[in-house]
UniProtKB/TrEMBL annotation:
It comes from Halocatena salina. Its cofactor is Mn(2+). One of its GO terms (molecular function) is superoxide dismutase activity. Mn(2+) binds at H27, H75, D157, H161. Residues 90-188 form the Manganese/iron superoxide dismutase C-terminal domain. Belongs to the iron/manganese superoxide dismutase family. It catalyses: 2 superoxide + 2 H(+) = H2O2 + O2. Keywords: Manganese, Metal-binding, Oxidoreductase. The gene is sod. Gene3D superfamilies: Fe,Mn superoxide dismutase (SOD) domain, Iron/manganese superoxide dismutase, C-terminal domain. Residues 2-83 form the Manganese/iron superoxide dismutase N-terminal domain. The lineage of its organism: Archaea, Methanobacteriati, Methanobacteriota, Stenosarchaea group, Halobacteria. This is Superoxide dismutase. The keyword rRNA-binding does not apply. Its EC number is 1.15.1.1.
Length: 199
């Protein structure tokens, strides 16, 4: 099988003025496409090596699957976590669980913003199926700092390609902008699916 880049779930200018058409175009068409291509190319190397029995290069290709695969998965999530109708706070079962596990929405948000300010990659809200609780995690690149058994619920990309053209070094302004377009509908459904599977 090979992986394909799904189209954005809205127009390239749909998140303006919070995220510019230019940044979404580069980010989706160039960067995200690059991870899809990288994943496919690494899979080809692995398949060829299995066929030939010569495993030189297989370890590097396995690392490339992790890097590019996590890049594809998280970008796909990130696009779905935003919409022009966003900007609300979560509701329903996910909102209740955030209150239960973090104390309050404000406490969750403060901690998530701290993660986003520090990450060299992503801030993620995950459902940790091992401990049966929600957590924020700081992820460098696309995979360093991931926690086994965790399922990403909400993803915020803080690679420089995500914000620098719009906000320069003021990453905090971009994080504020993310909360103007964050759409909790998809994360709420993803959370319910994850707990159903593991609780
Ligand atoms: Fe990105």
């Amino acid at each position: 099988m090979s992986y394909e880049l799904p189209p954005l779930p809205y127009e390239y200018d749909a998140l303006e003025p919070h995220i510019s058409e230019q940044v979404l175009t580069w980010h989706h068409d160039t960067h995200h496409q690059g991870y899809v291509n990288g994943w496919n190319s690494a899979e080809e190397t692995l398949a060829e090596n299995r066929e030939s029995g010569d495993f030189d290069g297989s370890a590097g290709a396995i690392r490339s699957v992790t890097h590019n695969g996590c890049g594809h998965v998280l970008h796909d999530l990130f696009w779905q976590n935003m919409s022009p109708e966003g900007g609300e706070e979560p509701s329903g079962a996910l909102a209740d669980r955030i209150e239960e596990d973090f104390g309050s929405y404000e406490a969750w948000k403060g901690e998530f913003e701290a993660a986003a300010g520090d990450a060299s990659g992503w801030a993620l809200l995950v459902y940790d199926s091992f401990s049966n609780q929600l957590r924020n995690v700081v992820v460098d690149k696309h995979d360093q700092g991931a926690l086994w058994g965790s399922h990403p619920i909400l993803a915020l990309d803080v690679w420089e390609h995500s914000y620098y053209y719009d906000y320069g070094p003021a990453r905090g302004d971009f994080v504020d902008a993310f909360f103007e377009v964050v759409d909790w509908e998809e994360p709420a459904a993803r959370y319910e699916q994850a707990v159903e599977q593991f609780e």
